[in-house]
Amino acid sequence: MTVTTITDAQLAPKDYASDQEVRWCPGCGDYAILKAVQKACADLGLVRERTVFVSGIGCAARFPYYMSTYGFHTVHGRAPAIATGIKLANPELDVWVLTGDGDGLSIGGNHMLHVLRRNVDLNIILFNNEIYGLTKGQYSPTSRRGTRSPSTPLGSIENPVSACAFALGAGARFVARSIDTLQAHLIATLKRAHTHRGASFVEILQNCVVFNDAVFEHITGKEVAPDAQVLAEHGKPLLFGKNKEKGLRLKPGTLALEIVAATAGDVLVHDETNRPLAQLLAALEPPFPAAMGVLYCSPAASYERDVYAQQAVPKGNSDLDALLNSERTWEVVP
Amino acid sequence: MPTKAEQSDLFQAVHGRNADAPLAVLAPASTADCFDIAIEAVRLATKYMTPVIVLSDGYLAHAAEPWRIPREADLPRFPVTYRTDPEGFHPFLRDAETLARPWVRPGTPQLEHRIGGLERDYDSGHISYDPDNHARMTKARADKIAGIANDIPLQHVSLGDDRGKLAVVGWGSTFGAIHQAVKIARDEGNDVAHIHVRYLSPFPRNLGELLKRYDRVLVPEMNNGQLVKLLRAEYLVDAEGFSKVTGKPFRVTDIVQRIRGGAPPPSEGSGLGGEAG
Ligand code: SF4
Q: Which of A137, B65, B171, B231 is the most buried (most CB within 10 A)?
């Protein structure tokens, strides 16, 4: 199997928009993500007929309708299965999966696990708004303990799943995190994800203005952002704070991180090929800053590549008649 | 009961889909028939662009029988035509005969479009919540499946005459037991026929008319009476159920006895439609 890369440098972001009216709530973070994806498509020169957006169910899942590419709005939680089929049928297609914290980690948690483990060459974008938006605001698997919602009126007593920690646990070879409002960073992250061969998993913190407004304010708020986010860039020290005056290092004698002054000599340098480090970064919770950027990238053979490689090897019984008449068959002579 | 023989998922197959959207359901009569019915299912699925359920059961899965191996060259062929011409292309136009839409492979230039589970405008394919359009689309989905009846064989009688006193109607793996039972009962001089239904949704288009030519219709099933309810609902025939839900297949004698007019042994099942008249 040889995959040819053809690009279309003539297209602008608006050329990737379909003629459909976008129907998210005014102010929803999804608009910014749509804009970022369209910009990334234009920057990458994606050919529209070779690009496929696949979604499950939820607010995020409306995404394919708004793209001028091929699109499939499919079964709740099952976009990874359909996307896998599309990619296997034609590995030259550029296949994206759009999902949310409900679709991808609740009803579709099993599918997400297996598509990441198999390492199918898909760009998987998970919109995390920590709530079920489409069904009007029930708590989701990423909702934090104490979240009050119509289905948890006394506050959630469940422990949330971390999307990036889940992806790493499932064996994903590319795991990144960004934020709807962080346009430049988001576009760059999407482009990196696209370049990665194999399953790339991008979690986007997305504000649901109607049912979970400002749930990420402690990370994204202008005032707090410098202290609440640490940008992971390969080969660069993990520094944060208004003047990059703080850093992360391994707490001596442990396998845990701690915050130190940037001047401390042993601030960790981000190594995106280091899975244990990625796991530590993905799991950071306040008082630590939330890690943004490419937490982990370590390419390996992708599933569809191996499928085609296996099929390319000639086998003994490739003709159906020979196969059906092999082994324990006999002929009844009248 | 997993791994045991049962036919209890017929309703789920025929009616189990969301949103009043029917699909095609076939059931193989024997182990050998599984091969042919799988090919038939793919033919219908690709021609009508619909999911097709092949309803097998534990009895067939565990059974073995001699099967004449076909030659690949003799297998039916039904290539799918993919649309590539952008001229006049509309992803939501339906074929006048099958009501199916064109097959378009992602990767085909200028045919980019989006499909999904939300209701669509009949013509443009844009998401539509228009009440009349929804009614029209719901009917179109039903008509598409109903139209398959014109593309499948007419219902024939497996054994006996195409009219008379009693028809024993079965589906799936009970074929052998019913067939033997009807043979024995006929040898004894009973006016009885065996009808085996392989196409369960839609039914063959002559099925209702055929059933009405018998004084009585008896439907043995390894469930609590599912095909019998479908036949009664569809054709208003006074079909009688004969259920066995023990996880064990029918014995020929169960059915012979029932044809003769006797009650089945109590531990082996009970009639749903009361005593045979
Ligand atoms: S419910 Fe929330 S996530 Fe859904 S469109 Fe509205 S704001 Fe966006």
A: B171
Do the chains contact at A90 and B66, CB–CB below 8 Å?
Answer: no
Cα-Cα-Cα-Cα torsion B40, B46, B51, B57, nearest 10 degrees, comes to 20
Written as one letter, the residue type at A180 is D
Which residue range(s) make up the domain with B233? Answer: 164-269
Q: What angle do CA A155, A159, A164 make, to 5 degrees?
A: 125
Residue B214 lies in a domain: yes
CATH number of the domain residue B265 falls in: 3.40.50.920
ipTM: 0.90
Residue A102 DSSP label: H
Q: Say what the pTM is.
A: 0.93
**Tens of pLDDT along A98-138?**
999 999 999 999 999 999 999 999 999 999 999 999 999 99
Q: Which CATH architecture has domain A13-216+292-312?
A: 3-Layer(aba) Sandwich (3.40)
The ligand 1 atom at the shortest distance from the C-alpha of residue A211 is: 2
Task: Please check whether residue A67 is in contact with residue A94, taking contact to mean a CB–CB distance below 8 angstroms.
Answer: no
How many folded domains does chain B comprise?
Answer: 1
Question: d(Cα A268, Cα A262) in Å, to the nearest integer?
Answer: 10
- Name the residue at shortest CA distance from atom 5 of ligand 1: A24
Interface with chain B: mutation pick from A73, A96, A323, highest number of B CBs within 10 Å: A73
In a domain, B97, yes or no: no
Establish if B144 belongs to a structural domain: no
A23 phi, psi to nearest 5 deg: -115, 25
Q: Are A80 and A48 in contact (CB under 8 A)?
A: no
Residue B264 lies in a domain: yes
> In chain B, which residue's Cα lies nearest the Cα of A53?
B114
